[in-house]
Structure formats: C-alpha cells, structure tokens
Design a protein that fits this description.
Blueprint lengths: L3 H20 L9 H18 L7 H15 L6 H4 L6 H15 L5 H31 L1 H13 L1 H6 L5 H19 L10 H15 L4 H12 L5 H28 L5 H11 L13 H11 L3 H11 L2 H16 L12 H15 L19 H23 L4 H14 L6 E4 L8 H4 L5 E3 L13 H7 L1 H11 L5 E5 H13 L2 E8 L12 E7 L3
Parallel strand pairs: 1-2, 1-3
Antiparallel strand pairs: 3-5, 4-5
Helix pairs in contact: 2-6, 3-5, 5-6, 6-7, 6-9, 7-17, 9-10, 10-12, 11-16, 14-16, 15-17, 21-22, 22-23
C-alpha cells in the first residue's frame, strides 16, 4: 500500500539501517527483542511508581474494587455489576495478584496501592514491544525505533497505561492482535506460527473484556475479508469457532461469579448503544474526539502524526483511527480512555515522520540515533521539542494533578490498620476516591450514591449534596450514627464548617489535590475531619 515515492523513502531508510548496523557499538538496545522488552519493562515499572494521581473512577471501582471483593470478601459493587453489564474477566486478573499478595502476607497499605499499577506496567511493556514489532513489519526497522520513542515519550501513554483500566489492557491486546493479523496478511517475511488464529483469539478476548473492542475488529476483519481465500471456511471454522469458545468461557466465568447466567456483552451494548445509558454521566458535542479529545492525547505529536499519515499512504491503519473516532463520536458520553486503543497507531505515524526527518546522505553516527554528530538538525529539534513538551506534562499530570484522592486513601489505610478509624463518610461527588481496595480494612464506609435514576430529572445523592451541602449533611446526621471520620473537598468544606463544628468534628489532616478545576468547582484540597471523642 503506498506510492512509489513512499517506497523509495522506505528503501532509503532501510539502507540507513544497514549502514547503522555496520557502525553499531557492541551494546545496542535494538539488537534483540529481549533487550527491547527489558528496557520497556524497566521504563514502565518506573512509570508505574511515578503515577500517583487519580484520573477516572473506573481504574479502581470497576477493576480493583471488584477483585478485592473476590479475594477478601468485601468491596463495593457499583450498579453496573448489579445490572450485569461488566464481565469478571478483567477483575480476575487482579484477583490473582491480590491472592498472591495475601498468600505472601504482603497485603500492606503500600503494596495494595502500588502493586496493581506495577503489574499493569508489565502488561503495558508487552504492548510497547508489540507496537515496535508491528511498526517494523509495516514500515521497517528504522521507523520502528522512532515509533518506540513516540510511544514511551507521549504524555498520555505515560499517564494512562500503568493504570488498571480495562482500556489499558484492551490497548495492549489491540496492538498485539494487529501484529499477528498483519503478519498473517504477508507483511512479515516469516509470519509467526498460527498468527491468524492468535489474532482471532486475542481479538475475541479483547471483545470479552470490552465489548466495544468489536468496533476495531469489525473494521480490521471487513477490510481484509475479500482478500482471504476460502472465506466460508475462514468464517465458520476460525472466526465463529474461536468467537464461540471465548464467549462460552466468559459466560461460564460470569455465571460462576454472578450466580446466574449473565450475558454481559448483550447487556453492555443494550445499555450503552440502544438506551444511551452512558449519557447520564455527561455528554459532549459530536466532534469532541476530533477537535479536542484525541488531539489532547496526541498533544505535540499531532502534527507529526498527521504528516506521517499523508506521507506514508498507509490508509489501512489511518482508516482504523478515523473509523474508531467516528463510531465513538455517535455516542453522547465521551471519554479520553475510550479511544486509547488507537493512540499507539497514531504514534506509529509520528515515528514515520521522525524517521523521514532522519533521512540524509550520510550514515548514522556510532554515538546514538537521535543526537549524534551527524544527526539532522530538524530531527534533533523535533526530538527536543517533543521531550520538552511531553515530559513536564506527563510528570505534572502523574505526580501533581488530582493526587489528593490517592494520598487521602493511603493515609486512611494506615490509620485504619492501626485501629484509629471506626467508620468513614465521604461527603464528595460519588467515586471521588478509591475505596476498599485501597483501605483494605473491613470498616463501615459510605459514599454518596450516583446510580442512574429511572425517574427523569430526579437528583441522586451526589447531586443533592452538591446542590445544598449543609441541609443534606444535617439530614444524614439526624438519621444515622455519626462516623468517626469525614472526607470532604475544600470547595464543599466551606459550607459545612459550621455544622461539622456543631457536631464536634475537627480537622485532622489536609491533602493537596489540584491547582485547577476539571468538571466542578476548584477542588483544591481534601480535608479529613475526625469526631472529637471528648
């Protein structure tokens, strides 16, 4: 796929790769896939420790909280689990991790908060390796190196991939599945054994974890179906059989854990596509992914990705990006992470642009790919520009912005372990912090519910509290026993100081949260109030 001009560029890039191999020093990161994987593993491990902020409730409430309940017997199941629109397949991954921690007696507050992201970083490093391998068979060795650089330096990949989202796992499976699928199509000189079946099995698992992954694989399969010989044999003996096997195994797992037959994929699609249930949590304009969401994720890589798309003429993969963004644009409720699986594909085109900038008449120097003495100035400036713009952004979002939600739960978990906490009330918008999976103590806790209400226009607890914090809390205190600790954002704390003082609550600890607001009023800090025993 591509013009003769593009083919000539790829030929020249391969010539440079041969020259580079002749002058390469003894140690070369790209000399083997094992070295690349080891480097990615070390990078993502560090990445996981540097991610210390809160991003989206699903990271905790739809994965770790469920896994904690599976292993330790307590944990909150949100309304999605009561309605059967989530599969236990993804939480099962972390349930195995929790079981190992419990067996080794390492389920301390620090390990309970850090090891899930560290474990996810191992999965993410597999995705990094397979993106390199995918880029190599599509564009060649030279481009693949710049693709790996783009993947590891992009701020959103750094910010999001170590998090325990099902979207993060879906992204790894998408890249891995595409590698095996495109290998089967003949891009690779020596296709991996059973590459087509591996691609189908991985795609089936991805759809089992997130049914919306079918959007990706419907495009991929339809695009290449006409070029496959023995189409009926392929559809019935491979696609259908592998799909039914994955579906049956997932249904069996969900039957065991739900306690009844639950067809998650059907319930998920029915809720999100046919009843627009996701719109309850907010909507965006139809073009949001094209004009705001995806450009923000790419950030300063955007012009390089666009240039790579048009320069490479690899319309199969760029069409996949457009297809996914287009389909998700139909839905009212939109989030950055929904389109995470195609972000690595866009970064592939960035890598192509950078490789094109490295094209010169001279062989590459021994002292590095990016900053050698003969490195073209345009490439050097581009690399510096991308690093200078993405690294500060990645570190700020990972270490600073919205870190209070994580810090307060780590503090509470240590206090609870020492027996200093009897019960906790979270007077915050629902799901503003992790829950039992971080506290890891079976204490009475309550947060403000925000489950979708069948009555149109009815306010849930979270909305009622935000509308009138003082009256809402007065009613809670009148009807229930006072908790030993209350957690509240600074923005609502101002309206509650009088009533908290009246009921003998005093400030115990305060944690910085954010410099600027996201969806609501500025939630600059999180305060911990304790009931005065005297």
């Amino acid at each position: 796929m591509g013009t003769s001009k593009t083919e000539n560029l790829n030929v020249n890039l391969r010539k440079h790769h041969r020259n580079e191999k002749e002058e390469t020093p003894y140690y070369n990161l790209f000399s083997s896939e094992k070295r690349i994987f080891a480097f990615c593993l070390a990078f993502r491990a560090l990445n996981s420790f540097l991610v210390q902020t809160y991003f989206n409730p699903d990271e905790h409430w739809q994965a770790l909280e469920v896994a904690h309940r599976m292993v330790f017997g307590y944990g909150h199941l949100t309304w999605e689990w009561k309605n059967g629109i989530r599969s236990y397949l993804h939480p099962l991954v972390f349930a195995v991790l929790y079981k190992a921690l419990a067996f080794l007696r390492l389920d301390s507050p620090w390990f309970m908060m850090r090891t899930p992201r560290l474990f996810q970083s191992v999965i993410s490093s597999v995705g990094d390796l397979y993106l390199y391998k995918l880029s190599r068979i599509v564009f060649g060795d030279r481009v693949a190196k710049f693709v790996l650089f783009s993947q590891l330096s992009n701020w959103f990949m750094f910010f999001c991939m170590p998090r325990t989202f099902s979207n993060s796992l879906e992204t790894v499976m998408t890249v891995t599945g595409l590698y095996y699928w495109i290998s089967f199509l003949g891009y690779a000189k020596h296709a991996p054994f059973f590459s087509r079946k591996k691609a189908l099995f991985i795609s089936a698992l991805a759809c089992a974890i997130r049914p919306t992954s079918a959007i990706i694989w419907l495009y991929v399969g339809s695009f290449d179906l006409f070029g496959i010989q023995k189409k009926l044999r392929f559809l019935f003996l491979e696609v259908l059989s592998i799909g039914i096997l994955a579906f049956a195994l997932t249904c069996l797992l969900d039957w065991c854990l739900y306690g009844s037959w639950t067809f998650v994929a059907i319930n998920f699609i029915k809720f999100n596509f046919f009843s627009s249930g996701g719109d309850y949590y907010g909507t965006h304009v139809w073009h949001w992914y094209f004009t705001q969401g995806f450009p923000a994720m790419l950030f300063t890589f955007l012009p390089y990705s666009l240039f790579g798309i048009f320069k490479s003429n690899e319309w199969r993969l760029s069409g996949l990006i457009a297809w996914v963004l287009g389909i998700y644009s139909i839905l009212g409720h939109k989030e950055f992470r929904f389109v995470l699986p195609v972000l690595p594909i866009a970064l592939m085109f960035s890598g192509y642009s950078l490789a094109a900038l490295s094209h010169s008449k001279h062989p590459l120097p021994k002292k590095g790919i990016f900053f050698g003495t003969r490195c073209p100035s345009k490439l050097r400036l581009s690399i510096l520009f991308l690093i200078v713009t993405n690294v500060p952004m990645a570190l700020y979002m990972s270490l600073v912005h919205q870190r209070g939600s994580e810090d307060v739960m780590y503090y509470l978990s240590k206090e609870a372990k020492d027996g200093k906490i009897r019960s906790i009330l979270f007077l915050m918008p629902c799901h503003s912090t992790p829950y039992y999976s971080s506290l890891h103590q079976n204490l009475p806790m309550r947060f403000l519910d925000c489950s979708p209400n069948q009555a149109k226009g009815a306010l849930d607890e979270s909305d009622q509290f935000m509308a009138n914090p003082s009256d809402f809390v007065s009613e809670i205190f009148r009807l229930t026993l006072l908790p030993s600790h209350i957690i509240v954002f600074e923005s609502q704390e101002r309206a509650l100081r009088e009533i908290l003082s009246l009921f003998s609550f005093t400030e115990e600890k305060r944690f910085f949260h954010a410099h600027f607001k996201v969806d609501r009023d500025l939630q600059g800090s999180i305060a911990v109030y304790a009931l005065n025993a005297s």
